Amino acid sequence: MSHTVRNDTDFSLEHKAKKKKSFVFSLFSTLALLAAVVGAVVAVAMIFFLKDITATLPSYQDMLDHEPSLATTVYDRNGKVVTQLFQENRTWVKLDAISPWMVKAILAAEDDSFYEHSGIRPIAIVRALVVDVFHRGAKQGASTITQQLARNLFLSNEKTIIRKAKEAILALRLERIYTKDQLLEMYLNTIYMGHGAYGVEAASKTYFAKSPRNLAIDESAILAGLVAAPEKYSPFRSEKSSQTRKAYVMRRMLDLDWISKDDYDSYIDKRPVLAKRTARSNSISLEGAPYFVSYILFKQLLPNYGTEKIYRGGLKVHTTLDIDLQKKAEEIVSKMPYEGALVAMDPNTGEILAMVGGRNFDKSKFNRATQAYRQPGSAFKPIVYATALEQGYRGVDHILDAPLLFPNGWSPGNYTSNKFDGEVTLITALAKSINTSAVRLAQIDGVGRIADLARRIGITTPYLPDDLSVALGTASLTPLEMLVAYAAFANNGYKVEPYAVKEILSQRGESLEQNGPKLANAISPATAVSMRSMLEQVTSWGTGTRAKIPNYETFGKTGTTNDWTDAWFVGGVPGLVVVVYIGNDNHKPLGGRSTGAVAALPVWKEFVSYAVTKMNLPAAFSIPGDAEVEAVRVCKATGFIAAEGCPATTLLLPQGHAPTAVCPWHGGSLAAARADDNAPQLLLAPIDDETTSNKYAMRLGGEEQARQPNETETAAGQDEPTPIPQKKTSEKEPVKLPSASSDPYKKDPSQHTDMEAKYQELLKKYNIIE
Prior knowledge:
Layout: H1 13-54, H2 60-65, E1 72-75, E2 81-85, H3 100-110, H4 122-134, H5 145-154, H6 161-177, H7 180-190, H8 199-208, H9 217-226, H10 239-255, H11 261-267, E3 280-281, E4 284-285, H12 290-312, E5 316-319, H13 323-334, E6 340-345, E7 352-356, H14 381-390, E8 398-401, E9 422-425, H15 426-431, H16 435-445, H17 447-456, H18 479-490, E10 494-496, E11 501-505, E12 511-514, E13 519-521, H19 525-541, E14 555-560, E15 566-573, E16 576-583, H20 596-614, E17 629-635, E18 648-654, H21 670-675, E19 682-683, H22 690-696, E20 699-700, E21 703-704, H23 711-715, H24 751-765
Parallel strand pairs: 1-5, 8-19
Antiparallel strand pairs: 1-2, 3-4, 5-11, 6-7, 6-16, 8-9, 10-13, 11-12, 14-15, 15-16, 17-18, 20-21
Family: In the N-terminal section; belongs to the glycosyltransferase 51 family. In the C-terminal section; belongs to the transpeptidase family.
InterPro entries: Beta-lactam/transpept-like, Glyco_trans_51, Glycosyltr_51/Transpeptidase, Lysozyme-like_dom_sf, PBP_transglycosylase, PCN-bd_Tpept
GO molecular function: penicillin binding; peptidoglycan glycosyltransferase activity; serine-type D-Ala-D-Ala carboxypeptidase activity
């Protein structure tokens, strides 16, 4: 029996093959183990990497709650857009309100497979990563529309691999939250398209001045082409580059069969009609009522809502402005040879209809309508006369126009220098703007009473003198203040609070604020109506005759200061009051005898003449029943009932207090005039001595028709010594007279410069970039 003995040194083929199989198995096992370890390490690293980069990403809820930055839109009273306030010029628009050509163009240019992928394109991402790794940085773009949206909403524009990873993760999340149409709508409303325009609504308005629903094929292609490089392909900057990019987008649309060959041929060489570019200053459009917008911005919007809400919150601000009136006002003021302001207001509500604070907002932010404290001159006189009416005096009563010389040497004169008319009616003194009569009437009224009435009807200035110079308009106040005061004469005695914002809505349409008229009783209806009637004499036969608006009752008053430094006209028609101020910022004289009638009145007349064609205004002022006044035809010279030969006018007087006798100068009975209990009276001021009254008083039948107001008439309610006691002239107590230090301009010779600096401080305060 033979035995086979194993020889360990036998290297047979079979044995060798067995050894080789064991080695390969070991090798693969080792490699597999190594790969598993490396894979595990990579997986763990990826987990930590993803955990790290996702830690700072918004959650699903954050993404749902996100609100994009939207421009705040300012509307006029009729719903017309005045301007927009923004850091990112964006107005949201629904997808179905966008031209289908725009939708196709953006898809063709940026992501033609948008409706097919799930937010990312893996193959494109891998290709981009290879290129990025090769170049050691993010060089290759592969972003879908969803990824771009994620970047626009939540990430920066830095080109790094980490940012791209975050972008992809957010894109996948967005796709799980929103539908494709929702994503596309969000994208079209957030993409930057150059020149400060975010989204297709802003871009359509910026480049073509039209709604995105009306975009044509070529216009859509131009806008879609902007996304890749807004500045490079802007049609405002380079027509050639813009047309080249448009051609690329249209070729893509043609290749995708989204436009026909005929459409392509029709639009490929067409040159677009571009919109006029609008200059902006500090996010305020220079073509959108800049002085008015600046007024509401710094007075109300920013203090109440803050920069973030106003410039990014998409608010809808409905104002009292009438944009047509505003544009006309801006046009007129821009042509003035000097600086100035114009404000228009509804006297019955206080709604500001137009506001222009200077000739050029870009050159000067100083709003002269609300910030320029200027002397109104004779435009202040109606407040003096209204105070007299409140004391029971009437427009038919008389006062002296005679020289004045006070103990301290102050001697106010008239515009006509040494010419004096003697005894005149109050309506004549006001219509002719006689200075000496106004000073006398102020002495009769008492400066304290004048100041009290001024405050009641809306004068708020701290620069209101407490001496007789107040009668000549030496107070320093703003045009808006002056307008509010005159509104009380137009609305039958109410002080109105001027306002500019009617309602503010959130971007969701919720009402955040509502404002309406605020009126308070200031003077009696009788005083207001009588004063308005006296001011109608100014525009009928006084210094303001050229202001008369045909077919409308018109009232107003001119104003001029010393050396023709300031020129004013303030007045109105039913339902509208307007103030015009003209003057140099450095207070240098206007020159050329630029009175209110010469410089300011024509501006007022041009604006009001236009306004009445645009507004549905009544022809006559309303007179409330409790005013208890009656229209009386009187003689301008004597104040008695007008005879056939009288220079006559119609005046509203308190019922039961109108003269009954016919003017004895022009055919009436002298006896009847003497017997008339309501006959006009001569009001003598404390300064008027017997010599003056005898020299200048009017005589009827050789007798003076004169009296001095009694103590009750002059002292009631006064907070100062009675200026007109029942004493002889020599025993009258002295009154407070103006001093050289009362000039408000000496306190602030460069007010406009200070205001320009203040404007810049406000921009810094609210973090608005110049």
